[in-house]
Amino acid sequence: MAYSFRLEVGTIGKTMKAFLLCGSIAEKSHTLALLKYIEELLKEKGWQAALWDLKTSPLPIALPEYHQDPTLNSDKEVQRFVAAVEESDVVILGSPLYHGSYTGVIKNALDNLRGDAFHGKWAALVGNAGGSRASHVQFPHLRQVVNALVGYSAQTQIGTSKGDYQEFPDRYLLTDQEVKERCERLVNELFTIFS
Fold first, then answer.
1. So what's the pLDDT on residue 163?
2. Closest to 109 measured CA to CA, from 158, 52, 155, 65
3. Which residues, 6+ apart, have CB-to-CB distance to 177 below 8 Å?
4. Mean model confidence pLDDT for the chain
5. CA-to-CA separations, 94 to 69, 126, 136, in angstroms, rounded
6. Taking a C-beta distance cutoff of 8 angstroms, is the pair 121, 183 a contact?
7. pLDDT confidence tier of residue 112, bands split at 50, 70 and 90
């Protein structure tokens, strides 16, 4: 089956919805700080943006019997998660680098979706790693998952390292100006797709 890059009828003029998924369960998360910054930029553009934090809203292990229709899953959090993804126009996946790839919790979350959950959706990839040279390693792996879910990958991806943030007792705050400009570039790319 061939898929085109055309907008669905009725997307122009409607409020666009972005779903941001944080695949970090760290007590203080760089990836969460990055996603919160992007969430605010999207809202400034007039988008509805919903951020799902897998630390505060964990999902159960994906059960294969619901792969065809995850809406039949009796777990209310899975039902809420599936509905939020399916209602979105754009998905932004945020994952730190764990052992050379994305995190297991983000994989499990995506495994709770149907096989074509990203059909017609654009997906952007962002995340953090301990060192700047490794801050993008998880993205090719995540892009394969986006493709498997029949989604389109945005060109702009954002990889950060700990030096891009200021640490506070309870959180991190994105402070690097170059990374902030890259976040704006990503949001503008998504905005352009739907304008």
1. 93
2. 52
3. none
4. 91
5. 25, 5, 11
6. no
7. very high
Q: Which has the closest alpha carbon to 113: 21, 5, 2, 7?
A: 21
Domain boundary assignment for the chain? 17-193
The Cα 144–Cα 125 span in angstroms is 11
Is residue 61 classed as helix, strand or coil in its secondary structure?
A: coil
Note whether 82 and 104 are within 8 A (CB). Answer: no
Find tokens 């059960």 and name the residue: 63
21-42 pLDDT, tens per residue?
Answer: 999 999 999 999 999 999 999 9
Angstrom distances, CA of residue 186 to CA of 91, 126, 156, 181: 12, 10, 5, 9
Where are the extended beta strands (E) located within 95-187?
122-129, 152-153, 158-161, 165-167, 172-174
pTM: 0.91
Tens-place pLDDT, residues 59-110 = 999 999 999 999 999 999 999 999 999 999 999 999 999 999 999 999 999 9
User: What CA–CA distance (Å, rounded) separates 139 from 146?
Assistant: 10
Tell me: pLDDT of 9 over 50.
no
Alpha-carbon distances of 117 from 31, 88, 111, rounded to whole Å: 23, 10, 10
The partner residues of 65 in beta bridges, in order of sequence, read: none
- CATH code, residues 17-193: 3.40.50.360
Euclidean distance between CA atoms 98 and 96, whole angstroms? 6
